[in-house]
Structure formats: C-alpha cells, structure tokens
UniProtKB/TrEMBL annotation:
The lineage of its organism: Eukaryota, Metazoa, Chordata, Craniata, Vertebrata. It comes from Erpornis zantholeuca. It is found in: Cell junction, Gap junction; Cell membrane. This is Gap junction protein. Keywords: Cell junction, Cell membrane, Gap junction, Membrane, Transmembrane, Transmembrane helix. Residues 134-201 form the Connexin cysteine-rich domain.
Length: 219
C-alpha cells in the first residue's frame, strides 16, 4: 500500500495548523505512519498462517481465527490512520476555495487565505471535532472487537466444525501486545492534542471577540 497521499495531505495541513496542530501532524507522521510502515505491518503480515490449533480438523483453524480476529489489527489500524487524517482535507479544501476565489475576482479578498479566521475557523474546529470523535470511535471499536486491549497467548475454541474445545496459539503475542499498547497510547495522545487545540482556538477567539466588543464600547 502506498502512503504517499497521506504524507502529502499531512504536509499540506501543516501549513495551516497552530503549534499544537503541528505537534499532532508530527505524532501522526512519525509515531503512527512510520511505525506502521516500518515495523507493525511486518509483525501482522502472516498472522493467519501462524495461527495454529492443536487439531487438524478441516476448517477448524479458519473458523476459530475468524471468531477471535474478525478484523485484522493492522488493517483496522490502517483504516484508523486514514479516517482520522481525512477531516484535515476540509481545511485544505477551504483554503483552496479561498485562493481560487481570489484568482477569479483578481483581487485580494483575504489578508491571508491560510489564516485561521471566519469561515476557515469553523471548518478547522469541525475537523478537530471529527478527528477526536473518530479516534474515540476506533478505540471503542478495538476494545469491543477484541474484548479489551490485550492479545492472549492461548485461546480456546469450540465452534463448529471443531469437534470439541481446542487450544489455538497466536504467534508473537508479546510483540503484538507492545504495538497494540503503542497504538492505544498514540491514539490517546492525539485525542489530548486535538482537545487542547480545540480549547485553545475557542479561548483565543473568544478573547478576541470580547476585546473587539470592549473597544467598540470604549469608542
């Protein structure tokens, strides 16, 4: 899978972000995307082939694997990366709309098309809310699908066509557990960063509006 489009998207968003937003971009790019591409993808690469049960009943291993891993961790992680980065497109599209509008009118309509104010501020806040919501949704989804943030060494399966309760072993459970904890930690960090940036922007522009009203009253 090529991640160039996601890298370009994050690079574009970085131009219009606040300081906290740039930290978020760095966390997503350095501690999530690169870790995924460089290490995590290889660990889960042959997870189905390395899933072994102590019985050779045809179909038993496949059914048990599907029961305990309805969606691959690594594919769900990839989907999460894409989904939480997509709301940033709203900001990029809004800035592009501003720049295109200036070209059509052949005059300066905005002080700086990339400044976070007015309609762009609303778009930026919506993107932050969406990113935070998606992060939380995926954390809950991980927890529900796998009965917690853990990878057991051994699972017991009694689903047909298995003739009885069989023991199934997961390959490299400790290594996978470390990356799963890393995933959860970085997701929580991104949630904190998004909420911090959201609070910062709301506070900043609330103060700005208050000062404007105060100055008008003074005049």
């Amino acid at each position: 899978m090529s991640w160039a489009f996601l890298r370009d998207l994050l690079s574009g968003v970085n131009k219009y972000s606040t300081g906290i937003g740039r930290i978020w971009v760095a966390v997503v790019f350095m501690f999530r995307l690169l870790v995924y591409v460089a290490a995590a993808e290889n660990i889960w690469k042959h997870e189905h082939d390395e899933f072994q049960c102590n019985i050779k009943q045809p179909g038993c291993e496949n059914v048990c694997f599907d029961h305990f891993f309805p969606v691959s961790h690594i594919r769900l992680w990839a989907l999460q990366l894409i989904m939480v980065s997509t709301p940033s497109l709203l900001v990029v599209f809004h800035v592009a709309y501003r720049e295109n509008r200036e070209k059509q009118h052949n005059q300066k309509l905005y002080r700086n098309p990339g400044n976070i104010d007015g309609g762009l501020l609303c778009t930026y806040l919506i993107s932050l809310i969406l990113k935070t919501g998606l992060e939380i949704v995926f954390l809950v989804l991980f927890y529900k699908l796998y009965n917690g943030f853990k990878i057991p060494h051994l699972v017991k399966c009694d689903i047909k066509p298995c003739p009885n309760t069989v023991d199934c072993y997961i390959s490299k459970p400790t290594e996978k557990m470390i990356f799963l904890y890393f995933l959860v930690a970085t997701s929580c960090l991104c949630i904190v960063l998004n909420l911090s940036e959201l609070s910062y922007l709301i506070f900043k522009y609330s103060i700005k509006c208050y000062l404007k009203r105060y100055m008008k009253k003074q005049q």
